[in-house]
Amino acid sequence: MSIATTTPDDPSGRCPVCGAVVADAANRSCDGCGWLAWFTWEDLGDVQVLKPAGNLLHPEPLQKFLDAFTPRPGSRFVLNLADAQYISSAALAKLLTLRKRLLGRNARIVLRSVHPDLWEVFRVTRLDTYFEVED
Q1: Which of the 8 DSSP states describes residue 128?
Q2: 60-106, pLDDT tens digit by residue?
Q3: Within 2-115, where are the H helices?
Q4: How would you classify the pairing of strands 132-134 and 108-112?
Q5: 3-state secondary structure of 37
Q6: Residue 27: what pLDDT?
Q7: Which of 29, 112, 128, 130 could be bridged to 36 by S-S, CB 3.0 to 4.6 A?
Q8: DSSP code for 20
Q9: How far is CA 84 from the centre of its chain?
Q10: Per-residue pLDDT tens for 11-56?
Q11: Is 51 helix (H, G, I), strand (E, B) or coil?
């Protein structure tokens, strides 16, 4: 099942990521986790794809997502970084929290389409060994 990235599939107006009611019909972004405010989401059954809509400058949006998101046991979580060229150290710490949570549910985290400059940050901090990467 693929979740549209512009409107909820659920006619009740619930967020496909966290299940919160999406109150603003015009904006359709989720106040609970930030869906459509800073990222898009695809749920393909055993694979879930989060794609930030730009650089990850602040940890707060990721924390909001972490507070609302419950990983599926045994699933594959893909963080598509195609539109990100920079990540702050605080946001990077949140990614490590996400990784820990996923591993605790026997799920995998995969980084996709990592910009070379961003990959250099992972390499220099030695976090390249913590994440699986695909093109």
Answers
A1: G
A2: 988 988 888 889 999 999 999 999 999 999 999 999 999 999 999 99
A3: 59-68, 89-104
A4: parallel
A5: coil
A6: 61
A7: 29
A8: -
A9: 12
A10: 667 888 888 888 765 567 888 888 888 888 998 989 999 999 999 9
A11: strand
Q: Which tokens is 25 given?
A: 């019909």
CB atoms within 10 A of CB 107: 18
Q: 54 in helix, strand or coil? A: coil
- CB of 52 closer than 8 Å to CB of 39: yes
**Number of residues in the chain:** 135
List the helix and strand counts (H, then E) for the chain: 3, 5
Beta strands in the chain (DSSP E): 39-43, 47-52, 76-80, 108-112, 132-134
106, β-bridge pairs: none
Of the two residues 8 and 97, the one the predictor is more confident about is 97
Nearest to 91 by CA among 102, 77, 81, 82: 81
Q: Which of 102, 113, 114 is nearest to 76 (CA)?
A: 102
CA distance 64 to 34: 7
Task: Report which of 32, 43, 51, 34 is spatially closest to residue 4, judged by C-alpha positions.
Answer: 43
CA atoms in the 13 A half-sphere facing the CB of 129: 3
